[in-house]
Structure formats: structure tokens, C-alpha cells
Amino acid sequence: MRYLIGILCVLLFSSLHAQSSKEDLIQYCEFLTHQQVDSLMQYFHPKLFEFISKEELTKTLRSVYGDSSMVVSLGSPKKINLKKSFILEGVTYEVLTYQFDMNIMFADTASEASSFEFIYALMKAQYGKKRVNKNESKESINVLVDSRNIGILDPNQKNWIFINYKSKKDPILGKLLSDKALKKL
User: Fold this and answer.
1) Contact 57, 42 (CB under 8 A)
2) pLDDT digit string (tens) for 72-112?
């Protein structure tokens, strides 16, 4: 009986943990979608700010969001899945996958025709032809994006932080995560 109660507690704790990471991921994506740059900062790995200051990153993101020739909007994440979870030295790591829609609108396709075609070709190369559609009459490109993030919950932080996870060989990952954590991913 004690064994069953123990298993039940572990399962309950694990599902609560997974819910929390998913909720924080949704909140993080909402801040991205609504371009709330200051609110985004709490979801970035603290070591990132050793390479670029918060102020410089904030300024860069505001500059990107403020570009009037091209507007990028992101949909809310869907199909969120927890692929892997482990605890290492008191820190919880999770690999989360999800999809979202990205819409790129151009202010004036006539003057930016080469940019429009270049971005369209770039998106097809990166995400595949079946996931990228262009609508020349609306001057937009729609992309279905599959994304993978590493969620990290450190007891010293109030919320999950997220790192885009393309490959273990990504040089930024090596600077943000320990070798032990990278090996477990």
C-alpha cells in the first residue's frame, strides 16, 4: 500500500511539474506574440546575459519588432508535448515540443518584391514546402513551425526558463548548460 501511495505521489508531482512548464511555455509564447519585450526577459537563461546585456537584447528585440517594412506575428503554441524530463543537481530539465503559426506580412510587396521572394525561399528551405504558403494578394507568408525548447526550472528562479533547442552541437547550448545536462538531453 505504501508503495502505491509513493507511486501516486510521484506521478502527481510529475504531472504538476509538466503542467507548470507548459503553462510557463504558453506565457512565454504569449509575451513573444504580443511583443512584450520586458516580460520576456524573465524566461531567458541568466547566463545569456553574460554574452549580451539585458539592455542590449531588449533594444535589439524592440528594433526587430519595430520594423515597419515587415511584421512577424506568432500564433499561440499548440500540440505541446513533454518529450523528456530529468533532474540533475536539483535542477529540473524538460524537452518540450510544440507547433505554432507564423505570419510574415510585408508593408509594400511592390517595392519589396525581392525581399518577399527571398524570405519565402528561405522559409521553404528551413521549414519545408508543405509548411510554407504565400499569399501575394495579402502580401504575406504563412508558416507552420515545429519548435523544440529546453525548459529549465532552477529552485533559485521563480519560473521556468526556455532555450530553443535545435541540436546538442549548438555552441550556445554548450555555454548555457553543463556537460552533464547536455549528455542527458
Assistant:
1) no
2) 888 888 888 889 999 999 999 999 999 999 998 887 655 56
Element spanning 175, H or E: helix 171-176
Q: Could you read off the pLDDT of 130-164 as tens digits, one per residue?
A: 999 999 888 899 999 999 999 999 988 888 999 99
Q: What is the pLDDT of residue 110?
A: 56
Longest dimension (CA), the chain: 72
Helix (H) or strand (E) holding 182: helix 179-184
**How many other β-carbons are positioned within 10 Å of the β-carbon of residue 90?**
9
Q: How many CB atoms lie within 10 A of CB 5?
A: 9
Domain span at residue 70? 2-184
Indicate the SS3 state at residue 89: coil
CATH number assigned to the domain comprising residue 40? 3.10.450
106 secondary structure, DSSP code = E
DSSP states of 10-68? HHHHHHHHHHHHHHHHHHHHHHHHTT-HHHHGGGS-GGGGGTS-HHHHHHHHHHHHT-S
What are the two backbone dihedrals, phi and then psi, of residue 14, each rounded to the nearest 5 degrees?
-65, -45
Residue matched to cell numbers 554548450: 174
Helices (H), 34-168: 37-40, 54-65, 113-127
Query: Domain total for the chain?
Result: 1
